[in-house]
Amino acid sequence: MKTCIYCKTDKNEDQFTLEHVISQFLGGAQAPDNLKTRNVCGMCNSNLGLFVDASFEKDFLVFNELNEAAYSFFDPDSPTPLPLRNMGISDLSPPDMKEEEICECWIGPLGEQIYWIRPSDERMYWYSGGNPRTVKKVRTRAYFIWSERSQKNPIITWLSFGDAFNGRKVRKVSYTQVSGANLTDIGFSEPDELDLKRIAYFNNECSNGQERKNRLSMYLRYDVRFMAKLAIGLGHVLFGEKFDNSNYTNELHKALWYKEGDPEPCIVGRSNLGQDNDFLKKECGISHGVTLTILPSSKYVVLNLNISRKMNWVIGIAEIEDVKEFVGEGLEHGLCVVLFKSLGKGISLSLPELIAHNSNNMPHPELVEVESLAGKSVGYFENL
C-alpha cells in the first residue's frame, strides 16, 4: 500500500502512475527526474489534470502566452505547425446552432479566421476550447477562412490548419477554396448541406471588414488550486515525509481541494494579477520560457512561477522550521528550472546565475544558445 500525496488515500501500488510534478503543458517532461514522482494515484493524475491543471492552462491569458513560445522559436527555413490563438466567444450565430452550443473564435498565424462551434460548459466557462473531456468525445464543426496573407507563405497556414484541433472530434471545413493541394490530406471534409449554409453566413458576416465583438470569460481564482498542487508536489519530492506531515502542508491540501464557500486556506503567496512589483516578473524568468524558482526566505521556502517574464506567481511551499535540514542542499542560493516545451529543452541553474544572465553581467551559455534560436523569427511575421 502507498499513500497518494494529493488525496492522502492509501491504495494498492498498481493504482499509482508517473506524475510530472511540473505539468507537461509547462514543459514538465523536460524537468529533472528528481522533480517527478510515482506517489500519485491514477485517479488524481487524471481528475486533477482535468479540473486543476486545465483550469490554469486554459485560462485565456495563460493559454495564449504559452502558445506564443511556438511563434518565438519558429524557423522560417524549417517551418512547423503553429498553434491557433484563442479570441474568445464570437457574437456570430451560424445557422442551426443548438441552444447549448457556442461559436468560439480563433486566429491563425497569418490572420486566418477560424470559427469553432462546440458545446458550452457552465462549470468551465473560462476554459479556452471548452471542457477537455467533452470536446474529445463530442463531434463538432470548425470553419476555416484563409487570409490574404496566407498567400505570402501558404505552407505556414497549411501546417497550422493540419495540426489544429488535433485529438478532438472536429469536422474541419474550409470556407476558402484552395487550388493545387487537397485539403483532405490535412483532415478537412467536403462541406455538406449544413456546412454550405454556414459558409454562406460567414461570407456575409466576415468578408467585408465587419467589426466583431467577442466575449472573454475569466475566473479570478483559476490559479489557486493549481499553485497549491504544484507546491505539494515539489514539497514532496524535495523534502519527503517532513513536508507531507506538516501543518502548512495541510493548508495547501485545503487549497488544492477548495470549493466555493469553504473556509479560506492559510497559505502565503501572490497571484499574477495581484503583483505591483515587476522585479520578480523581470528577473526571475526568461523570455519565451517557463521558469520555476525555489528559494528560502525568512520564514518560508518559496516557489516562484514565471512565464516568459510577463506573468508571475508566488506561493509558499513549506515553513522553513519544518524543513530546515534540507534548505542547505542546493537550495541556499535558489534552484531555477527553465523549461522550453516547444524545443524539448530544460536548463537548471541557480538564481544568482539567472539574475546575472538577465542583467547581461554573465550570460549563461545554454540560455544564450536558446535566445539565438528565438531570434530567427524576429520581425518575420510583421514583414511577411
Shape: globular
- Number of H- or I-type helical stretches: 13
Largest pleated sheet? 6 strands, antiparallel
Sequence of strands across the biggest β-sheet: 10-13-12-11-14-15
- Proportion of residues in helical segments: 25-40%
The number of E-state strands comes to 15
Describe, in short, the structure shown.
The chain is of the alpha+beta class.
Give the SSE layout:
Elements: E1 2-3, E2 10-11, E3 16-20, E4 36-41, H1 42-57, H2 60-72, E5 85-89, E6 101-107, E7 113-119, H3 134-137, E8 140-145, H4 154-163, E9 170-174, H5 193-206, H6 224-239, H7 241-244, H8 247-256, E10 269-270, H9 279-283, E11 290-296, E12 300-307, E13 311-319, H10 320-323, E14 335-340, E15 345-350, H11 351-358, H12 365-374, H13 380-383
Parallel strand pairs: 8-9
Antiparallel strand pairs: 1-2, 3-4, 5-6, 6-7, 7-8, 10-13, 11-12, 11-14, 12-13, 14-15
Quickly list its features.
384 residues; alpha+beta; 6-stranded antiparallel beta sheet; 5-stranded mixed beta sheet; 13 helices
Note down, in words, how this protein is organized:
The protein is α+β, with helices and mostly antiparallel strands and 384 residues long. Helices cover 31% and strands 22% of the residues. The protein has 13 helices and 15 strands. The strands form four sheets. Strands 10-13-12-11-14-15 form a six-stranded antiparallel β-sheet. Strands 5-6-7-8-9 form a five-stranded mixed β-sheet, covered by helices on one side. Strand 12 (300-307) and strand 13 form a beta hairpin. Helix 6 (224-239) runs antiparallel to helix 8. The longest helix has 16 residues, at 42-57. The protein is globular. The termini are far apart.
